[in-house]
C-alpha cells in the first residue's frame, strides 16, 4: 500500500477513536486509566500521526534517491527534502490543487509521479515549460532556439564512475541557474525536436546519457508534480558502508 494512503487511513482511524473518547466518553466520566491498549494506543498516537500527515502533505516531504540518473547533483543513497508548497498546496492522495499557483521554473529539480506508473516517484530537472520548443542535437539542448550553454570537459571520477567508459563532467546554464551534468561519449544519442503541450513539463536527468526521462516517456503533467527538491538531509555511501557526512546539508541547485 502507498505510504501516503496508509498515513491517511491511520489518521482517520486513530482520529475516530480520539474523537469518540474525547467527546462521548468524557461526558460519562469514564476512568481512562483502565482502558485497554486498543483504545489507549490510537488515542495517544493520533496527534503525532496527524502532525506527520500535515507536515508531509503541506510543508516538506522526504524522498530517497534510488539510482544515479541525477549524478553528479544527486547520488544513490541521498535522502532529500521536497518543498510541497512550491507548486501549489495539494490534497494528499488525490493530489488536486487546493490553492496556490506556483509552477516549476527552468532548471529546477522537481519530484513528480512517474507518468508510466503513477505509484512511483521520480526526480528530474525541468528544462521545458508549457509551449516551449525543445531541440536536442549533438548532446545539447536548445529551448526556443536558445542553446543551453555548457562548459568543461573534465573527466568524472565520482560515485558510479566507469573506468572502461569514462564520463565527462560539464557545467550547464539555464535561466540563471548553473549545475553540473554528465555525458558518456560512448553512448548513442538521438536528435529530436519537440513542443511541450500545455499543462505539462519536459524533464531530464543530469546524468544525460544514462537517464530515463521525458526523452523516453514524454512530459510530466502538472497534476503529477509533488514539489521542488531543495536539500540533502542525509546520505548513505553504499561503497564505503557509512554516512556521507560531507553531503548532509547541501542545497540542491
UniProtKB/TrEMBL annotation:
It catalyses: Cleavage of hydrophobic, N-terminal signal or leader sequences from secreted and periplasmic proteins. Residues 43-234 form the Peptidase S26 domain. GO terms for molecular function: serine-type endopeptidase activity; signal peptidase activity. It is an enzyme of class 3 (hydrolase). InterPro entries: LexA/Signal_pep-like_sf, Pept_S26A_signal_pept_1, Pept_S26A_signal_pept_1_CS, Pept_S26A_signal_pept_1_Lys-AS, Pept_S26A_signal_pept_1_Ser-AS, Peptidase_S26. The active site is at residues 69, 124. NCBIfam families: sigpep_I_bact (TIGR02227). This is Signal peptidase I. It comes from Halorhodospira halophila (strain DSM 244 / SL1) (Ectothiorhodospira halophila (strain DSM 244 / SL1)). The lineage of its organism: Bacteria, Pseudomonadati, Pseudomonadota, Gammaproteobacteria, Chromatiales.
Amino acid at each position: 500500500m502507498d505510504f501516503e494512503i496508509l498515513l491517511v487511513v491511520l489518521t482517520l482511524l486513530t482520529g475516530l477513536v480520539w474523537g469518540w473518547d474525547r467527546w462521548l466518553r468524557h461526558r460519562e466520566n469514564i476512568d481512562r486509566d483502565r482502558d485497554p491498549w486498543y483504545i489507549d494506543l490510537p488515542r495517544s498516537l493520533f496527534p503525532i500521526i496527524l502532525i506527520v500527515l500535515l507536515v508531509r502533505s503541506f510543508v516538506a516531504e522526504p524522498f530517497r534517491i534510488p539510482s544515479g540518473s541525477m549524478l553528479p547533483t544527486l547520488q544513490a543513497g541521498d535522502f532529500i527534502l521536497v518543498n510541497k508548497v512550491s507548486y501549489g498546496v495539494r490534497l494528499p492522495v488525490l493530489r488536486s490543487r487546493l490553492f496556490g499557483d506556483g509552477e516549476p521554473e527552468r532548471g529546477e529539480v522537481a519530484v513528480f509521479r512517474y507518468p508510466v506508473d503513477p505509484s512511483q516517484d521520480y526526480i528530474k530537472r525541468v528544462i521545458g515549460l508549457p509551449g516551449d520548443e525543445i531541440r536536442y542535437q549533438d548532446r545539447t539542448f536548445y529551448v526556443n532556439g536558445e542553446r543551453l550553454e555548457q562548459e568543461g570537459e573534465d573527466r568524472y571520477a565520482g560515485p558510479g564512475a566507469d573506468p572502461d567508459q569514462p564520463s565527462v563532467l560539464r557545467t550547464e546554464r539555464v535561466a540563471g541557474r548553473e549545475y553540473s551534468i554528465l555525458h558518456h561519449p560512448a553512448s548513442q544519442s538521438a536528435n529530436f525536436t519537440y513542443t511541450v503541450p500545455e499543462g505539462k513539463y519536459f524533464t531530464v536527468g543530469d546524468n544525460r546519457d544514462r537517464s530515463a526521462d521525458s526523452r523516453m516517456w514524454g512530459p510530466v503533467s502538472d497534476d503529477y508534480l509533488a514539489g521542488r527538491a531543495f536539500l540533502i538531509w542525509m546520505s548513505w555511501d553504499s561503497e564505503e558502508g557509512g554516512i556521507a557526512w560531507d553531503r548532509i546539508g547541501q542545497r540542491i541547485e
